[in-house]
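Risk register update: the risk of archive-format incompatibility is retired. Evidence:
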Amino acid sequence: MPLNENSILIRDKYAIFSKKLNRPTGLTTEAFNVQMRLLLRKAALPFENLQPSHALRKFFDTTLINSNVDAKFKEMLMGHSINLDDVYYDKKNEISGNKLRLEYMKAADALTINDEFRLRKQIFDLED
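Archived output:
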């Protein structure tokens, strides 16, 4: 199932390399909060100090930078304005959409919180 404008980027279980058709579902606020509480507990940090929207945006931005996503595409993925590129860049054009998806895929593994999918990818790569 290729990424497109309707893809759920923050989602529940999804296996990119599965031979079966995947039906990803959006991650609920409650499921997100449960994961954040687990991560905070592992890090021995208090949940009260968390700013969920800021923390998520900071994590997303940092991960895209560390994954060498092109700066303009990173800003587009963050929903930021880049001079006039956000107005004139045709994201609906097939080539443009593919380019944006390719840039996102550079960071897809690093954006996945659950190690299960990275491990599956390693198994898939080793089997090849």
